[in-house]
Amino acid sequence: MKILVNTKTEGNRLGRPRSEKTRKAILVAAYELLQESGFKNVTVDGIAEKSGVSKATIYKWWANKSAVVLDSFFDASELMLQVPDTGSIEEDLFMQVSNLATFIYSDKGKAVSEFIAEGQFDPNMANEYRQRYFFPRRAISTNIFERAIGRGELKQDLDIEMGIDLIFSPLFYRLLIMGEHIDENYIKKLISYVMIGLRTNS
Amino acid sequence: MKILVNTKTEGNRLGRPRSEKTRKAILVAAYELLQESGFKNVTVDGIAEKSGVSKATIYKWWANKSAVVLDSFFDASELMLQVPDTGSIEEDLFMQVSNLATFIYSDKGKAVSEFIAEGQFDPNMANEYRQRYFFPRRAISTNIFERAIGRGELKQDLDIEMGIDLIFSPLFYRLLIMGEHIDENYIKKLISYVMIGLRTNS
Amino acid sequence: MKILVNTKTEGNRLGRPRSEKTRKAILVAAYELLQESGFKNVTVDGIAEKSGVSKATIYKWWANKSAVVLDSFFDASELMLQVPDTGSIEEDLFMQVSNLATFIYSDKGKAVSEFIAEGQFDPNMANEYRQRYFFPRRAISTNIFERAIGRGELKQDLDIEMGIDLIFSPLFYRLLIMGEHIDENYIKKLISYVMIGLRTNS
Amino acid sequence: MKILVNTKTEGNRLGRPRSEKTRKAILVAAYELLQESGFKNVTVDGIAEKSGVSKATIYKWWANKSAVVLDSFFDASELMLQVPDTGSIEEDLFMQVSNLATFIYSDKGKAVSEFIAEGQFDPNMANEYRQRYFFPRRAISTNIFERAIGRGELKQDLDIEMGIDLIFSPLFYRLLIMGEHIDENYIKKLISYVMIGLRTNS
DNA sequence: TAGTAACCGAGACGGTACGTCCCGTCTTTAC
DNA sequence: GTAAAGACGGGACGTACCGTCTCGGTTACTA
């Protein structure tokens, strides 16, 4: 499931092997700069200086600034995705959405909206974070919905993809377009509204 | 309702008045470049050259590139917002959402996602397009919802803001994050799912 | 006779005029760096930093490092070319050659051999210093020879170009290829040897 | 007389001996690149790739790019220096100078001026080509002059070094500074002019 | 015939400079 | 005062080549 930006098939043994220390130094520097200054203000020169690595080395392994920074983000987020399983679809979804919301509004999470923004101008980047960030999260939600269907809580013929869209998209709409935070009440109400339409008896 | 980027004009009377021809030339050039090359590839030098206007003049009236280009977009979209009123909430919403979707996926509309993207790095810009683009559209939706409540179609105590979020946010989620188009069937199904939760009898 | 690298026809009046201060700052910085570090170690970044001018400005007016540095050299050498006229061809030539030798072996003059060197890889540069440095000097020598012919000292049908070559080329041969200095005795002996072949009665 | 760049070999016996095949491959590749692209455009990476040898190996045996390329030049020029002996100083010198001129203006010989150029910035290199290229040639000229003195053609107390300078330096002056070719007539005239000054009866 | 020292290919790496691009500001003259 | 023309400082970009290094693997003397 995890798609890496660059590893160049580990099986190569010819020549001097890539320095793990260097790779890590780059990612750490990139991530720190991202936290300090935000995506727009991170520069490759800056990463090079901070990490003590030459620009050429950075450009050898990553296509451009976006690629390094994105990679540094995933490298830093040791992202044990939790799979909520409380027995109630509302509970499960609430946990997942509010965890996500908490992260997205946190210092560490503010990069997410910057990545989405940059992704509008850089299709490769967009594809990358979709694969590495959003798809794994949607997979968990799919699981949550499937279990709920199995328990008879939700319609048998439910369009799960749309269910997920309904639950998560307001979060990003508020974040990206309205520029507003949402709170727990909003999430609870949202879930309760949506669930009515998805239930067995509706 | 319409908020302009720059007018400051009103009360000034001394000296040569601002040339309307120049203003228009800038906006037209900016808009054409936006269509041709996308937001990122528009440059102020480019606008100046294409319009035969000096850069100083552009910077005199607009704060930066984003401001001109955004303004050119609104100047070009002679945007008579239509207020659907079919007597059915589903019909009204379907019209509004599918119009919006059609636009957003069109050549002219692709700028919207670029503006949202740039807005993540430029709060002023974000505020600007919110005021000029999104709030007017939400106002119409509010009207649609209020009429439906009045007709008894929807709950009396409905949280209209959240209703609007539920209907519109999947469109942008798919656009900005999933990078996918949505079709009429998606919109219809979406509205039908959501409406169940908002109806009087639910 | 003087051929300038770049002035772009003084008659232009539109737009902000080129800053003489900036031009001078660049040339001064370039010349100082040339003296301090030698041609190879001069960098455009260095000139930019030392002069407080942006690299873009430098590259706007000069094609590359060589062009600026060469220009700075001529700008610094306020080169009142002296035309010796002692009444004796030997005296005249001795003055000219030993002046040249003194300069070429001085700190300021060591750039000349670096320019010639660089000229082997950059035909434009070679042409430039030929026009600005060598041709004017040869013109003076031509004058010296012509006067001597007029006085009857030298053959009427003398190949003046070759005469000049014979007098000056050993200087550069010793400088560029043998890497040796020549002294006054060498010059005197050289002139006396050559003159025998060029005299009327030979 | 022949001074090699690197041999250091002599006394070593332990370990794997240096591969002659590798040495030759490097020199051949370097020389071909020199011919194709000129000195400035030869890169060590290029030599390594073309020869199938690693950069480290190149740097193990030569100090830098200049050293390899210069060495490749001498390796390629199987330079049986001919010693003209026609019985006439004019004839002997004409043969030597015109041979040199022909070479210097040929494709293979254009490297000479590039070496001289590079030598201005790299004293080691300058010393190297002086020892390997110019001194052997001057030795032959010395021989020619000495024989002529022995035959009574030239002055007994002739400054031979200066005689050689006078004959050869115009060739390089024209090549390096004027950027011009010289032809047979030039050489003949040059020799006849110079000889007058050097003869017994002058 | 086994050790071992030196050789060698592959290629990663730090460093330094390059020349380009675009931003937003400033400085002229012309209207 | 408005405007065109265009010079300018700043700052980042991505590229190129240098010379050094670190691996794994090879080769041929010497014990």
What are the SSEs and their pairings?
Four copies of one chain form a homotetramer.
Chain A: H1 20-37, H2 44-51, H3 55-61, H4 65-76, H5 89-105, H6 110-119, H7 123-150, H8 160-178, H9 184-198
Helix pairs in contact in A: 1-2, 1-4, 4-7, 5-7, 5-9, 6-7, 7-8
Chain C binds a DNA duplex (31 and 31 nucleotides) through helix 2 and helix 3.
How is this structure best summarized?
4 copies of one chain form a homotetramer. With 202 residues, chain A is an all-alpha fold.
* Distance between the first and last residues' Cα of chain A: 35 Å
Largest interface: A-B, 42 and 41 residues
Q: Give the SSE order of chain A as H and E letters.
A: HHHHHHHHH
Measured as a percent range, the helix fraction of chain A is: 55-70%
The overall strand count of chain A is: 0
Q: What structural class results from the helix and strand content of chain A?
A: mainly alpha
Quaternary arrangement of the chains shown?
homotetramer
Number of helical segments of chain A?
A: 9
Shape of chain A: elongated
**Rg of Cα set of chain A:** 20 Å
What are the low-pLDDT stretches of chain A, counting only 5+ consecutive residues below 50?
1-11
Mean pLDDT of chain A: 90
Summarize the biggest pleated sheet of chain A. Answer: none
Strand content of chain A: under 5%
